[in-house]
Design a protein that fits this description.
Chain lengths: 548, 580
């Protein structure tokens, strides 16, 4: 006997089969953005998410359960100043509030000295001058020219379809700023930093800030990331109420525009018909048919698991097989405490800093730590960065006046000894190191801790394979028009009706607002839908200067 | 800085009831602003993932609201609402069912089943089950001029019409045990039903509580039929559909916006003032038509309105409203192996895994004496439990029975079990102090021992972690749960229907303050649970007051009686949708 027999039809549920213009897989920042643009353009859009909550990396969760929430993934929002989505959806104001502290990135050393990168260049110069007056002057000079590279080229290019390297170098030749950037591209981050600064501690901080998101310090061909990540690293924003509020705000835009969001709906298959992608099937059995399918997942999941190798030609499959996941991931220790960490150092502003690096005393040590990580180890020489979230956001703690912080460090997916065992050991090691830098981080101050390993990241998000926070490594052959490969970097794939627009597609990972935006543009063009949004003035200037 | 804003309706608190109200009113075409203190909407209708890959529901779990008019009226399916039928309590009628007692299993007899089917309206053709549920939960209390008796009380009208042989005057005086003694057979089955009622919103042992208590059980799990108890995406998935319905109809939702004051001018609520740490730049938000408080009744009157506008006699009565009887200690167990029931509780041919999460063990159902012993512990002694864990009554959700395609734990080799919940003393009245139950190691162990009476492998080898949550913590997480009370206020006859929360407030209006309405579990009939009921009931009142003018989709409760001199909430057209 079923419910229906007894009660009659209880109530209606979402249908077994439904028809859409666009189905988007994955409600991370990119899926949300693509869905918001396209729904508002009048298309019938369904955004399908595996977890019980939208947001992907834009998560704010009660992981210090109960009563303390944290941002286990995205916390530093680096592109708020440029992302078209912010202006297009009016996401700076009543619905969403961004906080950009002046004290951005600090580094504290064992001897109590410290360095501080601030949003205001002059304040940073003051701090650097404690170590080297020459570096302070150089920093001012270099940052002014790098900021132009970011403002005029790298930032607007994030929202414009990619070019091949040859097209790119021809375009950049056109201006002096472009030529400067070309010179940087050829160098490795380590070279750029060593050539610019003389003091080793200054170098260590700059190297950490420019490579922390996964650049190989010794690799050439990616040098333009240094100005971008340093400049943006000094302009990080915090999303008041937690990063998930950014996701909720975009979610509301999708709903307001008539779109659908389905959570707890894992896509198990992209439905193929006559060599076209025509919809998706969910693990629970429901199907959503559509004209276009957009995937924000990593290439292996999208093409090998959901489409299936039988629908691809050999060469294309080889490209997908060749995809390399991030060379390192993160290990994070979240802590609820009575007091915020108070660092023992010579600069009171450090205690207000958005990010504080400790454990790193020299470039040599930093490089050795990273080499260890790449080799699957974490030695005693590790270091990382910490943030006290409640300094900026009291809402994260349900108990008044308590504090929530985390320490995060680069860590291998596969670690010698296995994470099962290593995770707890690391916790002790981290707390010892933290207490050395901030003496009040002792056991009596700590209410609760919880750690997240690279394996945990993958458990929360299977598309962050091997804990890959960017769905794939940053190396020259996986960047620009090669991300994820030349066939797909425009977001359109060789499979008719299938688009890719997650972190593994140009311009790449982190909350850049790039892939989702570009995917929406492409799909709008291909479906012949009028775009209600306009390119930003910065993009217009970039297009006019370099692309015409 | 942002300018001040103005809406037709300002709703304080985006929990289940505030959001239901927002959805209804936005669907009427009103401009609605929903203000929530926490970063996330949902109130006690939450799901979270405290450990990577492990999902739990810290507060509400089961969908009790299957009979709600809201499914049709708000069309939640459009916003992605789906059920996880696997986890529904789908136990065919002809399956043998057993109750757990300290001595082992007690069989549920045919008399139990048939008696139960009769009193819950399953035996007539067509069944009147849904009418009974709707009469009990989905009808606003009658206006003061209506005398309450066996002819006017909605559930009595339902019995009179559909099962006249049950319709006696005494039904209004009976306890749930009286009712069950009349129609059911075995003691453990009766005790089980009374206990589920107790933790589902009604103190069935109080006189007059028989039918509300029965309905509180029946709405979630009549023992023999399928019920829509587990939404996909868990309880917060249900909430998502509700919130999105409100947004799709234009409601503006703001989180991190705690309201500190309800602004009252010339005896009228005209807006709210936000706390200083609110996200929103302008700290005042104005309401043209109504301010609706969907937060706890105590802070509503004691803090947000305050003595400036209220007399002390009234405030004293608000202070005196009892929080007792709704505080639960909740535990989840993260284990290496599936939990195994001890042989003496294993039922031949019946596996929990096959029959849904809400058929997990309820223990022990020995006798009503034991039930009373447990109730007295919590409500009478007002101190930490002294009853030995072997005799403590609890319920347990068998969460491994959710659909395989979305298990509660996707962590390899790890199971999440629970919640196990136990009624405990309300921290506010604990003679040993508010924090007396904060020794969680101790209480987790108490819970473990209690569950170990039925489960054999709940030992240190198997347990990886225990996630415990005390009522005090529930109160911190959600100020709507004062006293950790999942029901808001005590749920006996004195605080039910026409008396909830106080007789003069029972119709959701606040006498003396125009434009102010109440819509929280603590301040409105039918109280706790995610039923979409407070919002539906309140709609009748807002229509009466000329604030809401719903379209064709609206139908009023068939038992609703309009207040004299007001606009009737019954649409001026033949009701297009029947109640079943
Ligand atoms: C620990 C950590 C810290 C980070 N910190 C920062 C930071 O401070 N700043 C920053 O900018 N970036 C940070 N990142 C990186 C950032 O989170 C990602 O690069 C970004 O979220 C990628 O966005 P996306 O939309 O492409 O994909 P994702 O955010 O990965 O979203 C993909 C979505 O798809 C869903 N999904 C997966 N499989 C399926 C399926 N089969 N069907 C349906 N849905 C599916 C997932 O559940 C997920 O919600 C961090 C990442 C990690 C792990
Ligand atoms: C342990 C437990 C188990 C439960 N089990 C079930 C179950 O299985 N099934 C079921 O249906 N129900 C269950 N319930 C009950 C159900 O969760 C509640 O009855 C229901 O969620 C209450 O909804 P509400 O909107 O009335 O209140 P709340 O959920 O309390 O909502 C009030 C909202 O207002 C916000 N708020 C408070 N103060 C302010 C302010 N000053 N300004 C702005 N916002 C504010 C709060 O943050 C909250 O979001 C359970 C509850 C608990 C605690």
């Amino acid at each position: 006997m079923t419910t229906d027999d007894i009660f009659g039809h209880m109530f209606q549920e979402f249908p077994e089969n439904s028809e859409w213009d666009v189905v988007i897989i994955g409600a991370g920042p990119n899926g949300l953005m693509a869905a918001a643009y396209l729904a508002k353009a009048g298309l019938k859009v369904a955004l399908v998410e595996r977890r019980y909550e939208i947001g992907g990396g834009l998560a704010t969760e009660e992981i210090l359960y109960p009563c303390y929430s944290s941002n286990p993934h995205v916390i530093y929002h680096m592109m708020v100043d440029y992302m078209p989505v912010i202006k297009d959806f009016n996401l700076d104001g009543p619905s969403l509030l961004w906080i950009k502290p002046n004290a951005q990135t600090a580094m504290v050393f064992e001897d109590g000295k410290s360095l501080l990168l601030t949003q205001m260049i002059e304040d940073t110069k003051d701090s650097i001058s404690k170590f080297s007056f020459k570096d302070a002057v150089n920093f001012g000079k270099v940052m002014r020219s790098w900021r132009r590279i970011v403002d005029e080229i790298v930032a607007p290019a994030t929202y414009v379809p990619t070019m091949t390297p040859i097209e790119m170098s021809m375009a950049l030749q056109k201006t002096k700023v472009g030529q400067e950037m070309l010179e940087l591209i050829e160098q490795s981050p380590l070279d750029i930093i060593n050539n610019t600064f003389e003091n080793d501690r200054v170098r260590a901080l700059m190297l950490y800030a420019s490579c922390m998101w996964g650049l190989d310090p010794r690799e050439t061909g990616i040098g333009f990331f240094v100005p971008l990540l340093l400049d943006r690293g000094m302009n990080k924003c915090y999303c008041y109420g937690g990063s998930h509020k950014f996701a909720s705000a975009m979610g509301r835009e999708i709903i307001k525009a008539g779109g659908l969001i389905l959570e707890h709906a894992e896509v198990s298959k992209i439905i193929m018909q006559n060599r076209r992608a025509v919809g998706v099937e969910l693990a629970e059995g429901r199907t959503l048919r559509s004209k276009v399918v957009m995937s924000t997942l990593d290439p292996h999941t999208t093409f090998l698991d959901l489409v299936g190798a039988q629908h691809m030609d050999k060469d294309f499959k080889a490209l997908i097989d060749g995809w390399k996941y991030d060379k390192w991931s993160f290990y994070t220790l979240h802590v609820a405490s009575e007091e915020p960490p108070r660092y023992k150092c010579d600069d009171p502003w450090i205690n207000d800093a958005f990010m504080t690096i400790f454990g790193i005393e020299s470039t040599e040590q930093l490089l050795a730590h990273w080499d260890n990580v790449v080799a699957g180890k974490i030695g005693a020489n590790f270091g990382g960065h910490a943030t006290c979230e409640t300094l900026h956001d009291p809402h994260l703690s349900d108990k008044p006046s308590k504090h929530i912080s985390f320490f995060q460090m680069h860590a291998p997916y596969e670690i010698q000894g296995g994470w099962e065992k290593k995770a707890k050991e690391m916790e002790e090691a981290v707390l010892a190191k933290w207490q050395k830098a901030a003496p009040n981080m002792k056991r009596e101050n700590i209410i609760m801790t919880v750690h997240e390993t690279p394996v945990d990241i993958e458990t929360r998000f299977p598309n962050m394979r091997r804990g890959g926070i960017k769905h794939g490594d940053y190396k020259p052959i996986q960047l620009g028009s090669f991300r994820p490969n030349q066939e797909c970097s425009s977001t359109k794939t060789p499979i008719e009706g299938l688009y890719v627009c997650g972190a593994s597609t140009y311009p790449g990972g982190l909350v850049l607002g790039g892939p989702g935006y570009l995917g929406a543009n492409k799909v709008a063009e291909d479906l012949g839908v009028k775009k209600w949004w306009k390119t930003t003035p910065e993009m217009d200037r970039y297009i006019k200067t370099y692309l015409t | 800085m942002n300018k001040e804003e103005r809406y037709d309706i300002v709703i304080i608190g985006a929990g289940h009831n505030g959001t239901t109200t927002a959805a209804y009113l936005a669907k009427c075409g009103l401009s609605v602003c929903l203000l929530e203190e926490r970063p996330e909407c949902g109130g006690a209708q939450e799901t979270c993932e405290p450990i990577a890959g492990v999902r739990i529901q810290p507060h509400a779990i089961a969908n009790y609201g299957g009979s709600a008019p809201g499914w049709e009226q708000l069309e939640l399916w459009k916003y992605g609402f789906r059920m996880d039928w696997k986890a529904g309590a789908i136990v065919p009628f002809n399956t043998d069912r057993y109750m757990t007692t300290t001595d082992g299993l007690s069989k549920v007899t045919d008399k139990d089943k048939m008696g139960y089917a009769k009193i819950t309206g399953l035996l007539t053709d067509p069944p009147f089950f849904k009418d009974l549920m709707r009469a009990t939960f989905w009808c606003p209390p009658h206006p003061p001029h209506v005398e309450l008796n066996e002819n006017t009380i909605p559930f009595m009208q339902v019995y009179k019409q559909h099962q006249p042989d049950m319709w006696t005057r005494e039904l209004l005086e009976w306890t749930m045990f009286d009712l069950m003694d009349e129609y059911l057979d075995t003691e453990p089955f009766k005790v089980n039903q009374a206990w589920i009622a107790l933790v589902s919103g009604a103190h069935g042992h109080m006189e007059g509580a028989a039918i509300p208590a029965l309905c509180s059980v029946a709405t979630v799990m009549p023992p023999a039929v399928a019920m829509p108890v587990a939404p996909r995406g868990n309880i917060h998935g249900y909430y998502h559909a509700l919130l999105r319905c409100a947004i799709a109809h234009g409601a503006v939702v703001r989180t991190c916006c705690p309201v500190e004051e309800i602004i009252i001018e010339h005896d009228r609520a005209v807006g709210v003032r936000l706390r200083d740490d609110a996200t929103w730049g302008a700290k005042k938000i104005w309401a043209n038509k109504a301010v609706i408080s969907a937060v706890h009744i105590k802070p509503t009157f004691l803090e947000m309105i305050g003595p400036r506008h209220l007399d002390s006699g009234f405030l004293q009565r608000i202070k005196d409203l009892s929080l007792k009887g709704g505080s639960l200690y909740m535990t989840h167990y993260l284990t290496r192996e599936r939990l195994r029931v001890r042989p003496k509780f294993q039922t031949p041919g019946y596996r929990y895994e096959d029959y849904g999460s809400f058929t997990g063990p309820f223990f022990p159902n020995d006798s009503r004496e034991l039930y009373f012993e447990n109730v007295t512990e919590v409500m009478g002694h007002q101190r930490n439990l002294t009853i030995p864990p072997e005799r403590a009554m609890y319920g347990m959700v068998a969460s491994e029975t959710y659909a395989e395609c979305h298990p509660q734990s996707t962590r390899p080799g790890v199971y999440i079990n629970g919640p196990q919940w136990m009624l405990v003393p309300t921290p506010e009245y604990n003679v040993d102090g508010m924090d007396a139950m904060e020794d969680k190691v101790k209480w987790n162990e108490y819970m473990r021992k209690a569950l170990s009476q039925v489960v054999e492998n709940l030992d240190s080898d198997n347990i990886i972690q225990i996630l415990g949550e005390s009522p005090r913590e529930q109160e911190f997480r959600n100020t709507g749960m004062l006293g950790g009370s999942w029901y808001g206020l005590r749920c006996d006859r004195d605080q039910w229907w026409n008396e909830r929360p106080l007789p003069e407030l029972a119709r959701y209006r606040v006498p003396g303050i125009d434009g102010l309405y109440l819509s929280h579990q603590s301040s409105a009939h039918p109280g706790g649970l995610c039923l979409m009921a407070v919002g539906y009931n309140l709609m009748h009142i807002l229509i009466e007051d000329g604030i809401a003018e719903p379209g064709d989709w609206w139908y009023a409760s068939p038992w609703y009686i309009p207040e004299e001199g007001k606009i009737s909430a019954i649409p001026n057209r033949p009701s297009s949708v029947s109640t079943r």
